[in-house]
Amino acid sequence: MISRDHPRYHSLIQREMITEAWRKGILADSGMIAHGRGEAFDYLLGERTTEPAAKAIRAAAAALLLAKNPVISVNGNTAALVPGAVVELADAIGGKIEINLFHRTEKRVRLIEEVLLENGAREVLGTDKLLYIDDIKSPRATASPDGIYSADVVLVPLEDGDRTEILRKSGKTVITIDLNPLSRTSRKASISITDNIVRAIPALIEAVRELEDLSRDELELIVEEFDNLENIRETLKLIDLRRYNPEL
Length: 248
Ligand code: ATP
What we know:
Function: Catalyzes the condensation of (R)-4-phosphopantoate and beta-alanine to 4'-phosphopantothenate in the CoA biosynthesis pathway.
Bound molecules: adenosine-5'-triphosphate
Pathway: Cofactor biosynthesis; coenzyme A biosynthesis
Organism: Methanothermobacter thermautotrophicus (strain ATCC 29096 / DSM 1053 / JCM 10044 / NBRC 100330 / Delta H) (Methanobacterium thermoautotrophicum)
Keywords: ATP-binding, Coenzyme A biosynthesis, Ligase, Nucleotide-binding
Subunit structure: Homodimer.
């Protein structure tokens, strides 16, 4: 039992959720390593939603509201940490949920589907028939025909650079959540949210509710004004400034 007063309470709780998901087979071994890399960046960022991240979250919410067919991609880490919030976000944007795994096994797909259904998902895509995006015969290019394959906007938390590039090249707006501002995914995505998924998804839900009554023109302006590489530069600057003042 971790005491709430422990200075690393939130981090320790996330570790418990991650190891528990690994024990159940929801998470591949490499999912735990990916979490560790994320933790390190979260530490550098001060374990809170930074100002640049809040800006990216607002742009992402606007892009999701503008989408005709938005899809949220779910992997093992996402299912381990925020299954309920993913379902809530999908409902808020009228979007679909699709399982997409780097280390795909039928067993893991079924386990993640089960977790999402238990958390209220009505439909989970990516469980059976998959197509290759732009006919690229790579496991990183597979997508469900009714989901990511035909989506205009995709939210792909904790994605890998190759897949992000394939999705971008196919003309989709790609939103990612990745604590590493220097990852290929962060640099290649249309909108990168440099924040922990446990904070970013609830913040996205809030931003969607805040922006949902805006006109299409107003939403488009928010998306147009967002510059991804500039946002990443702001995040890196903030990490650097925290050397002098960790309170920043
Ligand atoms: P790329 O190909 O984009 O350079 P990579 O090889 O670093 O990526 P992976 O190890 O597949 O990518 O991805 C894991 C990424 O997810 C890491 O960049 C890590 O910082 C990030 N990450 C891990 N846990 C979280 C979390 N809870 N919230 C947000 N991001 C996270």
